[in-house]
Amino acid sequence: MGNVTSSVAARFAFFPPDPPTYEVYKDGEDDDGRLVFTGLTADKNVRVHLLETKGGNKIVATFWKHPFGRFTILYSHGNAADLGQMQELFIELRAHLRVNIMSYDYSGYGASSGKPSELNTYYDIEAVYNCLKNEHGVKEEDVILYGQSVGSGPTLHLASRLQRLRGVVLHSAILSGIRVLYNVKMTFWFDIFKNVDKIRNVDCPVLVIHGTEDDIVDLSHGKRLWELAKEKYDPLWVKGGGHCNLETYPEYIKHLRKFVNAMEKLSFTKENKSRLGPTDNPDELPIFEELSSGIYVRAVCSFVRKLKIRIKGVNS
């Protein structure tokens, strides 16, 4: 069992850059020294973490703070990159989407210790999510999970276990490891990253982005994942887009911004509904539901004026 799974993973999943494109070291000799990520200056407003996972590995994570960001994107990158290569993208996403970015390197990638495996990626993203909650005070409902290519595996692993996520973005995502290699219709026990099954357990809005000319992960993967999602958001099929260049198309950032804006509106709507009492039924409270409407307020005022006139006529 383990040998077959390892064989699949070796053929598809993990190709960490060798050598890594960055280093992490402590600034100062004491144990409390700040972690420094080579190539990142203080003005970039990035905090570097070294997190221990359930698998016993220490992985590198970076938190890119936006001064006015409400949401945080937890970004799981593709299989042939490390954090050193992702800096420019994170800067662009943070600026254009006005969100915080939490990114990390899988075990065995970059300056993270250990060896890459399917299970380790699950341990990795769990450690990063716990860091977001415990050290940065980020609430589950303010998190958008983002998975690119193989990163869709840990993304859907976590998304299927959390019930109050704000949203999920699947970028050039896979149905499963075996399905990238072979056109099969069933899920085998030795398959890896069984996203085709986990997507059914995701309860938040899902945005799927895929290139129509992706020659590594066929467009059919993205379309099927979108079909299986419970809460579908308008997908983005990038015409002419490949597997590793979707960020270069102008519609990419435009559609992502539209998605984030929609999640903000959805969050505002849910917050307003939550202000109703636990026994209140919105269907039985039309007045309170419509009070924000100027048309309704004007109608009420008009009704009151007419009522006063009628009362005055009766009394005269």
From TrEMBL:
Source superkingdom: Eukaryota
InterPro entries given in the database record: AB_hydrolase_fold, Hydrolase_4
Stretches assigned to the Serine aminopeptidase S33 domain: 72-176
Gene3D superfamilies named among the record's database cross-references: alpha/beta hydrolase (3.40.50.1820)
Matches recorded under Pfam families: Hydrolase_4 (PF12146)
Record-given protein name: Serine aminopeptidase S33 domain-containing protein
Organism: Rhododendron griersonianum
